[in-house]
Amino acid sequence: MHSFEPGVAGGGELSEDIVIEVKNLTFRYPFTKEPALKNINLKIKRGEFVGILGPCGAGKTTLCLTFNGIIPNMIQGFMKGVVRVMGIDTRTTPTRELAKYIGMVFDNPEYQLSQMTVEEEVALGLGNLGVPRNEMLRRVKEALRIVGLEGLENRSPFELSGGQQQRLAIAAALAMRPSILVLDEPTSNLDPIGKQEVYYTVLKLNREENMTIIMADHEVEYMAACADRIIVMNKGEIILEGTPHEVFKCVDTLRSIGLRVPQVTELAHELRKRYNKWDDKYPILTEEAVEAVVKRLKV
Amino acid sequence: MSKEVLIRCENLWHIYPGGVVALRDINLEIYDGDIVAIIGQNGSGKTTLVKHFNGLLKPTKGKVTVMGIDTRKAAVYELARYVGYVFQNPVHQLFARTVEEELAFGPKNLGLSEDEIKRRVEEALEFFNLKEYRNVSPLSLPFPYKKLVAVASIYAMRPRVFVLDEPTTGQDHVGLRMIEDMILKLKEEGYTIVTVTHDMRLVVETAERVIVMSDGRVLADRSPREVFSDYKLMSLTNLRPPQISEFTQKLSKKVRLKGVPETALNIDEVLEPLAQYL
Question: What is the reported pTM?
Fold first, then answer.
């Protein structure tokens, strides 16, 4: 049914389930005192949807940039520790090589778009990889179908809506057949429909194509619904990690670094704290909260 | 007694060169002290509409008056005295070497005296808690502070109306909180505020009146609760109320709990009434 095949895994010294391994990673930008990342340890499994939360300046973007080797190969600084993607050490591998495994999508779609047509935009990376023309056309078509932009092949990327532009950026990444997609605040500049489109597209890739997703974003209600695991960063460190239920339960910790939790979680937390009327099982989704309340009603 | 009308749109149409119809026959008034949120998807005409409020855009057909002045007969700088416009991206607005100079720019253009300019700059620094950054380049500040400086530079001109175009875009949760607080503080001082936004939490935290736009038209002009409890309107415009509103809506379909609002706007409205049933 799905003709979309993720890239073939290289290396192989890791257990095949782990696609990214970060070990004791510290990174400091030139001319700064404080490291942007401090002793990060992280393993990401194939097919996982990992959400990264954290305030501005927490190190989310820096961490994302280490996954495809932009750090330390293009943005240099002081780096300690190891990042392995598909078992390959990013320090000794050119970014274009890593691009076969990792697709990147950034917050402002306009910065990533450069071509005259939607089709050319998706084909751009493939041309750079030297993919033959027939194969290129096939992949462009497939990628546009997956993100739901078929029919717009000849439009200018700049005539698209924000959500469409971001889906185009995803398509351009997909055409390279990565097995991992890294998205850095992809919905920050989008309207409500655009946010929904991006989450829908990414979730579909994750569930149907088993693509590994790593996504930094501020939309906690969407994260609660989509992520298998959430990592919370603050001041260059991972301070919390677990399933959305485990992480959002730590309302006070999250609040202390200025993060919100889903409103229904906050409701349960306040019911417990102020009225002693809730246990330690906090809902994170709307439907779940309705059921939980109905179950707990005194008759 | 009716409130003073600050901005009035009469049969306002805007058609961009090339023929795109951005606004279709808009009729509305912004009253003194209004706290209005304008919501709708991108392309629905929100920004085009508010750009008519200070004359940045002029009507293709129809009429817009600001404090009774026809915007077609006034220059943008004259209208800036009454309506201050804060762009979505503060970087597009900030240019001065220091925060202090940034804040002095507007009052200078208004032709105020040196003393008055100084006083206004000090008041703006104080109001927005920016004193420690007075000699810093505004572009070197963290993103939420850039936004504060952009709003403060408008504040220094003492307009009657603040137009804030998507003030929370790109902000993290800390930034969101800062902007909410800032709007509430301006509201307390009696300013009229028009916010264009996608952030429904910001709408319920700050607005008293919500204008819903779609395809260049005003589809609704009501209170936040009325707008968010209108399922048809929400699905027609692809907008979603905050999670707490959806939660109480779904809950009320399963069980009627007296005192729990059918469309809650915030958690505090739900806590006490719900606690007694648990």
Answer: 0.89
Question: Scanning every residue of chain B, which has its alpha carbon at the shortest distance from the alpha carbon of A269?
Answer: B271
pLDDT tens by residue, B7-54: 999 999 999 988 889 999 999 999 999 999 999 988 899 999 999 999
The domains located in chain A, with CATH, are 18-261 (3.40.50.300)
B-interface mutation test, from A235, A267, A273, A287, most B Cβ less than 10 A away: A267
Candidates A165, A161, A75; CA nearest to A118 is A165
Provide the shortest C-alpha distance from residue A272 to chain B (in Å).
Answer: 9
Place B149 in a pLDDT band, splitting at 50, 70 and 90: very high
Radius of gyration of chain A (CA): 20
- Cβ–Cβ of B247/A264 closer than 8 Å? yes
ipTM, 2 dp: 0.88
CATH number listed for the domain at residues B1-82+159-240: 3.40.50.300
CA distance B135 to B131: 9
H-assigned helices in B31-172: 46-50, 76-79, 99-109, 114-127, 143-155
**What are the Cα distances from residue B21, in Å, to B17, B24, B215?**
9, 7, 9
- How close does chain B come to A59, measured CA to CA in Å? 13
- Flag if A298 and B277 touch (Cβ within 8 Å): yes
Report CB contact under 8 Å: A290, B175.
Answer: no
> DSSP string covering A78-99, please?
EEEEEEEETTEEGGGS-HHHHT
Distance CA A194, CA B41 (A): 9
CB spacing of B172 vs A278 below 8 angstroms: no
Tokens encoding B82: 């009454």
Cis peptide before A30 (omega within 30 of 0): no
Q: Where in chain B is the domain with CATH 3.40.50.300?
A: 1-82+159-240
Which residues share a beta bridge with B70? B65
* B10 closest CA partner among B71, B56, B54: B71
Non-local (6+) Cβ contacts of A47 within 8 A are A206, A210, A211, A212
Q: Give residues with Cβ within 8 angstroms of A54, minimum separation 6.
A: A60, A216, A232, A233, A234, A257, A259
Among B240, B254, B267, beta carbon nearest to A267: B267
